[in-house]
């Protein structure tokens, strides 16, 4: 437990698991991503949009720590916050004002930039991928931390344009979605290696996320949560798309010793569709929960009784966020017999480190031209995944991959002779 002034932040954790029996066809990797020369990738010019927000600012701090020679350009709406950020990250950075809805201004600021990080969320209310479109026109590599299903699909729709321009781009490249997608892809890949030749296939892929307190991530996380309550949940059952009510279908999940058992609810998250389509798993869903428990009850009530047209209105959401700013933090989980677990004490720091790991991968040439989801080999080459996960897990309380559930759950019991049961 971590206590900071007026905020209680429980550990953030995420666990994903694949339900066996499993065997996956071999993923063929083409590693022709457009890399900067080694001498240039270490001091590339990186623009971070939304840098005066918690996620963008955390990404800037993470990049300044792990890649001190990068030239960072931080952009946001608050010059005061921007100047404070510059004091935090040092001399290799500059602050600029930019309106991301002004295409001309965007293209101008992208001139001379090697990679742009779009962290100016929430993404749920945006109808155009104007930053990605400007990046393609200016031939600038691109990453976003989108967690909206519709936005990510629109971004994917620009794949051919990005390929034609020779621009590598990754959408949903944060912590969840983002690192969680890569964990799922790696679990599938490892399962394929372990059950080669058996003819078995993956059956279930379940993403479970939990947050408690804001984790320092601020009102954007709350705004995103409320906006998602206005969307019907898309999941997949036996290969068919099914529609469910938001924040329904509660399930109690064990997130390990640091967090314990928590209740999570169905939410409409982009990794469900991308994992189903890319990894070929017939049953996929995503659930999210928060703490204290009263927040889950409030989310259920909002999903049931507030009209969806109001939940899709940003002004309404901003009002709800002002009334509910105090507490939120995270956990991720997936599956049954083969799991990945990611636990961190601070969501704000965690998402910054994760996004910085994606930035480094793109600059190093792990991403091919086109628009990719993180689990696609074109987005993060299969052989580059372990390094990406290693970098993203810096500072975690717990990070494990490809373990049996009983090995990480809260209280396994020894029955003798070194044998344990959940």
> What class would the helix/strand composition place it in?
alpha/beta
- Count all strands and give the number: 21
Radius of gyration: 20 Å
The main β sheet shows up as:
8 strands, mixed
Principal-axes geometry comes out as globular
Give the amount of beta strand, in percent: 15-25%
Uncertain runs: 1-12, 15-35, 214-218, 316-336
Total helices: the number is: 15
In round numbers, the mean pLDDT is 77
N- to C-terminal distance: 24 Å
Helical fraction equals 25-40%
Overview of the molecule:
The chain has 422 residues and is of the alpha/beta class. The strands form five sheets. Strands 3, 10, 13, 14, 15, 16, 17 and 19 form an eight-stranded mixed beta sheet that branches. A seven-stranded parallel beta sheet has the order 6-5-4-7-8-9-18, with helices on both faces. It has a two-stranded antiparallel sheet with strand order 1-2. The radius of gyration is 20 Å and the shape is globular. Strand 13 and strand 14 form a beta hairpin. The longest helix is centred in the last third of the chain and has 17 residues.
